[in-house]
Amino acid sequence: MNSNGATSSVSSGPNEASRRNSKRPKYSKFTQQELPACKPLLTPGWVITAFTLIGVVFVPIGVASLLGSRDVVEIVYRYESECIPQSFSDKKLEFIQSSETNKTCTRTLTVPKHMKAPVFVYYQLDNFYQNHRRYVKNRSDKQLRDKKSERTTALCTPEATLNGSPIVPCGLIAWSLFNDTYQFSRNDNGRLLSVNKTNISWKSDRDNKFGKDVYPKNFQSGRLIGGAKLDPNKSLSEQEDLIVWMRTAALPTFRKLYGRIEADLLANEKITVKIENNYNTYSFGGKKKLVLSTTGWLGGKNDFLGIAYLLVGGLCFFMALLFMIVYLAKPRPLGDPSYLSWNRNPSGL
Amino acid sequence: MRRCIYINDSDLTLDLYCDNRISNRKYTLLNFLPKNLWEQFSRFMNKYFLLIACLQLWPLITPVNPASTWGPLIFIFAVSATKEAWDDYNRYLSDKQANEKEVWVVKQGTRTRVQAQNIRVGNIVWLRENDEVPCDLVLIGTSDPQGVCFVETAALDGETDLKTRVIPSACAGITSELLHRIKGVIECPYPDKDIRRFDANIRLFPPFIENDLCPLTINNTLLQSCYLRNTEWACGVAVYTGNETKLGMSRGIPEPKLTAVDAMIDKLTGAIFLFQLVVVIVLGIAGNVWKDTEARKKWYVQYPNESPWYEFVVIPLRFELLCSIMIPISIKVSLDLVKSLYAKFIDWDEEMYDPDSGTHAHATNTGISEDLGQVEYILTDKTGTLTENKMIFRRCCINGVYYGNETGDALKDVELLRAVGCNCPEVIKFLTIMAVCNTVVPLKSKNGEVCYKAQSQDEEALVLAAGRLHMVLVDKTGNMLQVKFNALTLQYEILDTLEFTSDRKRMSVVVKDCQSGKIILLLKGADEAILPCACSGQQIRTFVEAVEQYSQLGLRTLCLAWRELTQDEYHEWSLLFKEASGTLVDREWKIAEVCQRLERDLEILGITAIEDRLQDGVPETIDILRRAGINFWMLTGDKQNTAIQIALSCNFISPEPKGQLLLIHGKTEEEVSRSLERVLLTMRITTSEPKDVAFVVDGWALEMTLKHHREAFTQLALLSRTAICCRVTPSQKAQLVELLKRCDYRTLAIGDGGNDVRMIQMADIGVGISGREGQQAARAADYSIGKFRFLKRLILVHGRYSYNRTAFLSQYSFYKSLLVCFIQIFFSFISGVSGTSLFNSVSLMAYNVFYTSIPVLMNVLDKDLHEKTVMQHAQILYYCQAGRLLNPSTFAGWFGRSLFHISTLSKRAKKAKKEHS
């Protein structure tokens, strides 16, 4: 054997040793896959503890957010059918499309609880598809932003040009701008509650997406009149109703900010609302609602978050309990190889 | 079927064959773009993505910016095209270097320097020491007076030992000046890729030896890419040039292996594609209906009353585009990326580094690591794979007398030394065969020591042992062979060498004893190949018993025999042999037939027994892998008893009474079939018992069963967890692999020698041991490792992790794209089924690339269990083998998960969005 070893070393030569060393893989934690890694073994103890912990954390959060949501006072008033005079109750479409009819309707709302300023005024539309593909793409962001590109109206058909000159702002979205208006006054003293309509849109929209030097042009002057008209002397960045409307809603039911009442409303106070009911939702059966709401630490009134937290927390407690019962009643040995494969029995080895 | 090459005659052969310009390039500058694109688009997935990308160019239907699809698509295409281009450029550079290298070529009788690419078939090329051979040459002259030269063939077959090449006998004795003017014709077959065969003839024209047809073999050639070593110069005639050389012909891309995981992913992709079609059709119809009933009422949408004819396909196509992300474009890229990382981890692994040979594990095939974790059958070679292939002469039996039985080492046996000392003729003959009957090359080093270069480890062991017993092989120059016995120098002239082939299982040399002038045939080989040829009077029982006894000890036995020939007999046979050697068709078979005539009436001298020790850690490795549920089959060319002994010593089978061996044997076809039936019956009965049952079959019985009882044998294979197949040929090994593959088993073949190459290539995974028998197996294999014991780490650690990671990654890719796709589908229900995209292009792209692809790639470092835990509880591999992490039901789980996540998300979103907009 010795002589054998000698021959092989003669044949391999003296520089073999150094070459061998250089061939040896370099050590590093990455190459040797030794970076710290772990995967917790889901033993019953672990699972039950984890579920209980999640429950313990989630239930209080749920309770807190539910309480936070309950503090928000909200008045929702649906008016699209109430604001139709009796005589037009069968011909709603005719009523809304006619320019002769008196569309003002005055109603009284009762404040259920004290509402701290600012009180936000929203309009809510139902069954209105601002997210329809044909609608949502029908705008020209370039034109809205920049005076020089008022001719980029390619995406805006059929509301792109009027007799060859471009419409600013073009497109179906701007064309169908919401045009109901609300006026509020206190019932007891008849004093007008002013609605602040500034800063109701996103600041980034005002500053970046709607140009300060872009003025409405040829707007709502075609054969078909869609919605509201715009003051041609105000630049687009000042037309906040348009800016709010142009930020299209993702769902067919949506609220948009109308303005803010910067005064406290007292509990049981009566408020008179004068609604100009102009907007046509009757052709497609959409609802219109007026919403007055305060905000809490979670935003507007929304019980969902609290309920969701409570539900998940409760579910976790339930699961913990269930696993505990299963574990106590029918424990399964840990690491039983017969669970490794369903079509072979390792114990038969 | 042959080409005629006129040596050194530029008029006759110039334009018939290609020049020596080597081109490995796949592309040229002009055809790169179209060809590469064509290749990439031949894959279904790519076609699909291109179609989607083209549809997106139509602004009426595209939901997002077309750049969000074109970007990744172009990126993916650019990456693979760049990779191809880079590889091709490197090939071009190396081709250029080889093509423009200057070599000495004889032109019009003088040696001139020309670029290698200008060598023509028929040119005479001169090489200096350490030169690379530029094309396939037939050797016609060397600096050595005997016409021998040495070449290193590492680039060709990976074997690092020097090989001897000799000039054909017709060219012997031609001076180097005459070589410039030599004329003649070489008849050789059309170019092929067999680097072990070259069946050709040479005939020299006057004034050289006239009309004497001289056979050429592979030993007379210098093949392209070899290096000339230890020889001052050599020259040869170019026979194959350029891409027609043996090396050029054997180049080629092996068929890509598809892993079970990949096949499963393809299937799931198909299912998702069908699902997508259904979604598109349903939503498309719903969209058209909604448009006609509802959307016309919405005055603010202003649907025109008249629409173009293609209106009805617009909405379905929009949904097709919205849903196209269901099949993630990133999956192929990320899978390729992680797979190459798995392969790198194998290369980098320190624990699979073999310090003895200085080799580390290497993954040649980077795409099939997952399959390692799903192996069900391992088919292993014995010699060199389970054993070290370090042969040591241990015992012998000469003329019925056993030596080395007491001490376990015949070289220390006093009896043998005494027998040698007193010139016992049988023992002398025995030692002569050990020293002479081989192809070992003795090399004298500078300090006078002799060392040996051998291709066969057995031969080296025998020569070394003979040397220890004072019969030293000193020198072999040309046909002359010198042996020193004590102080005596004996000379032999080698007349013919009848080479070893795996069919013949023996080799012999015909030598002429220069002292007595006798012609002797010296023979060694497997006992069953030699004992039947014993002369009629001889008792062979003792030898059979010796073979039996040795193989029970796990020793390799060789039978040595001797026969004296008469002059006439030899000359008569010699003519036949020459004729057979000169044939171009079926040469090997014809030679074997001729050899048969000489190898008869032998005087059997004795048996040698050589020990081949088990490698370190083999029993443990087999034990752990068997606990992991992997079945082992041993396929060996060795004898049954030796194989069983080795199998016992490495835990392959258990000894009685726990284990039971069932033998399939028989002399005739009927006996074999009866035996097979019996074994099958026993096997069926014992499957319920906790017993290790293994069947043993030898090559002949295997051939019978595979031919006539394939069904029954397949059943047996399914029942048996262990099998030993001995005396099997390389093609039978491959057949067995194929048999198991047919039964839908994942097979892994591991071997180290050239005889395992076919099995390695056939198996789902081929593992080569870069061992002492050369690199052939390791080069053909998908993975090469230094030692058998690394197999357990390769399978249990790398294979298992790879499987787990790929299973997660592929399903996660589908999950995340299904998730975003379901959002789009749900959104379409609340956006008037009009095909609006909820996301804009940037968020969609960011979601696909930055949020869900790159972070998830980190899972290549994921480990569910520690390596040590896996090694200790190898049963865990069952989980991977059964494919429990990636199958239709787990995929359905991920599908359901994405659905569930979406339904909670959308509920939440609906509620929350009502609040503010």
Automatic annotation (TrEMBL), chain A:
GO cellular component, one term: Golgi apparatus
Biased composition (Polar residues): 1-15
Keywords of the record: Membrane, Transmembrane, Transmembrane helix
Subcellular location: Membrane
Region of interest: Disordered: 1-29
Membrane-spanning segments: 46-68, 307-329
InterPro entries per record: CDC50/LEM3_fam
Superkingdom of source: Eukaryota
Membrane topology: Multi-pass membrane protein
Record bears the keyword 4Fe-4S: no
The keyword Zinc-finger belongs to this UniProt entry's keyword annotation: no
Family membership noted in the UniProt record: Belongs to the CDC50/LEM3 family.
Protein name: ALA-interacting subunit
Record organism: Amborella trichopoda
Phylogenetic classification of the source organism: Eukaryota, Viridiplantae, Streptophyta, Embryophyta, Tracheophyta
